[in-house]
Amino acid sequence: MHTKLLCLGVALMASTAAASAQNAPAPVVNVEVEPIACYWRTGSPAVRIGQPFTLVLTCSVLDTTATTVVPDQSQLDPGVLQVQPFEVLRGRQAQELRTANRRFFQYDYTLRYIGEEIGKDLAIPPLTISYRVQSRVRPDSAAVESREREYILPARPIRILSLVPPVVSDIRDEPPPTLAAIEARRFRASVLRIVSWMLFALGGVIAVWALVGIARTRRGAVTAVVRHASDAAILRGVSRELADVGRESAATGWTDVLAARAGAALRIAASLDTSHPVSQTPASLGEPAAGGQLRVPARWPRGGDVLLSGSMTTLTLAGARELLRPAESRRAARLAAMEEALASLTAAAYGRGTAGLNADRLDDALAAGTRELSALRREHTWIATKLRGLARTVSGFRTRAWAR
User: Fold this and answer.
1) Cβ–Cβ contacts within 10 Å for residue 67, how many?
2) Cα–Cα distance for residue pair 128/117, rounded to 1 Å
3) CA atoms within 13 A on the CB side of 26
4) Could you tell me if 259 and 241 lie in one domain?
5) How far apart, in whole angstroms, are the C-alpha atoms of residue 70 and residue 67?
6) How many structural domains are present in the chain?
7) What is the pLDDT of residues 291-336, one digit of tens each?
8) Residue 288 in 3-state DSSP?
9) Are residues 134 and 196 in the same domain?
């Protein structure tokens, strides 16, 4: 009986121990993390004597709230680094990148070999990087810095006037882009994205403007004056026509045809001066100008010629002169001179016969028209037109500001 009770107790103890072993938590496994890891690569496996080549150094250091690795980067500066027998020509540091627990920094050097070893494998010497580890018990506690430690980067072989060093046993693929190249691509992508949004906005503005124009057209007819020739080109054509009439009248005397030509030219100039529309019709190839029309070249890019005609008379000139303000006395005097000259030329062109043509009177009318035309041309130069537009804008702005 006692033996049976003893066996039962041993069995219960064994089962209890087995259950405790199953319910016990798994043991914690610590994984060692390298505080710093570096590697470097060359832009070419083989170089010539004096040929510049690139050497890229990339390092990754631990950077968390509990542990921070602080390397001594002053010894990696291009002006300090020594890699005998190679010479450091220049270099730069790329912008740092950070992840959740690592910090990456990179240096891009330009080296060259100016020695006398030809056809041999030379090694970029090992690089020693000093660093310290800063540890914190809590994020808000002071950091405890360790003693200075060293990380040694192995030597990097490179062939002088050869394809691949004999110690390399693998195939070298095309190297990945550097951090600087990645940052440059990101900047270029950001610029292109901004430009695309600006173009998209511009397209939206143009679409809205087109829709507004369509809506205005549907609401009612819009009167538009087709302008095939600029005001300056029209006035130049009028000036040439009056000069031709003056030469012909001096050579052969005045006729009704010459008077009609001068009158037609002055009517066009008077229409521009009083802001009346000038009829502009594209001239076909070889089409002659009819009576009362003037041919001038069309503006770029259309090209060709344009037939012009004006509808001003002495009565309309007198009405336009009466509507002028007292401050526009000079313009009123010009319109009065054009009115008198146009009356003399019209009477000579459409009077009965040519015996009653008064050459002196017609010469005075032509001279007065030419003089007033010169003043009108000065007012229609590019600079004068822009200044008048600016003055109207400023005046309108002042009027709106005063109304507020």
Assistant:
1) 16
2) 25
3) 3
4) yes
5) 10
6) 3
7) 778 888 876 666 678 888 888 888 888 888 888 887 788 888 888 8
8) coil
9) no
Same-domain check for residues 141 and 200: no
What's the domain range around 308?
A: 231-397
Query: Rounded CA gap, 108 and 77, in Å?
Result: 10
Residue found by looking up tokens 């691509």 in the block: 185
379 and 237 within one domain: yes
Asked whether 165 and 124 are in contact (CB, 8 A), the reply is: no
* Number of neighbouring beta carbons within 10 Å of residue 366: 24
What is the arithmetic mean of pLDDT over 214-241? 73
- In three-state secondary structure terms, 141 is coil
Q: Half-sphere exposure (CA, 13 Å, Cβ side) for 97? A: 14
CA dist., res. 93 & res. 43, Å (int): 16
In this predicted model, what pLDDT tens digit does every residue of 124-138 receive, in sequence order?
999 999 999 999 888
pTM: 0.44
pLDDT of residue 231: 82
Please give the torsion angle defined by the CA atoms of residues 385, 390, 391 and 394, in that order, rounded to the nearest 10 degrees: 160
The 3-state DSSP class for residue 202 equals helix
